[in-house]
Amino acid sequence: EAGVVQSPRYKIIEKKQPVAFWCNPISGHNTLYWYRQNLGQGPELLIRYENEEAVDDSQLPKDRFSAERLKGVDSTLKIQPAELGDSAVYLCASSPWTSGGYNEQFFGPGTRLTVL
Amino acid sequence: QQQVKQSPQSLIVQKGGISIINCAYENTAFDYFPWYQQFPGKGPALLIAIRPDVSEKKEGRFTISFNKSAKQFSLHIMDSQPGDSATYFCAASSRGGGADGLTFGKGTHLIIQP
Description:
The complex is a heterodimer. Chain A is an all-beta fold. Helix content of chain A is about 0%, strand content about 45%. In chain A, the strands form 2 sheets. In chain A, strands 2, 4, 5, 6, 9, 10 and 11 form a 7-stranded mixed β-sheet that branches. Chain A starts with a strand and ends with a strand. Chain B is mainly beta. The N and C termini of chain B lie far apart (about 40 Å). The chains are: A mainly beta, B mainly beta.
């Protein structure tokens, strides 16, 4: 079974430029998460999707970050414009969530963003 | 507000020894407590998880001990091996665990010396 796929793996941009990250979850997983992991820290949730609906985006900095999951499968996270403090690893995870279940979140390898 | 506090930040253990990592949480609504292992350049991978209705869960060399009244849980790695050298994160979530986003600790960098 293929895991969570993310691209690109690495991205270097100058501040104020836009950047986008792509995630393809494990087939059949209806819940998708975006996390940000700063150097030496644990991942922090940015947004959670149930199918195509964003059910928790309370931690997403909406002034510059946006996300979409139009057909309930793959997802894109965008930053525009990027700031120096956005340098981090952006992780995508998916889960085969079912009602009342305790389901593992499977993480992709992440995209390492460096803003210069 | 850091809802999951993890210690120690780094840990060095001799091969064959026991590695112990501790976490404490504040949110009493948390009802799912997983531990993740992360190698450099990789995403976190689930190691073992526990629900608060049990006090201990063991899978191979890995054991979670859970103390609901103290709001603490810990990971024990028995017979630690060099291949266990990685960063370990405790995490927690509420309302059924798998669906909600996870709140992670800051991580423990574990080194197993041969």
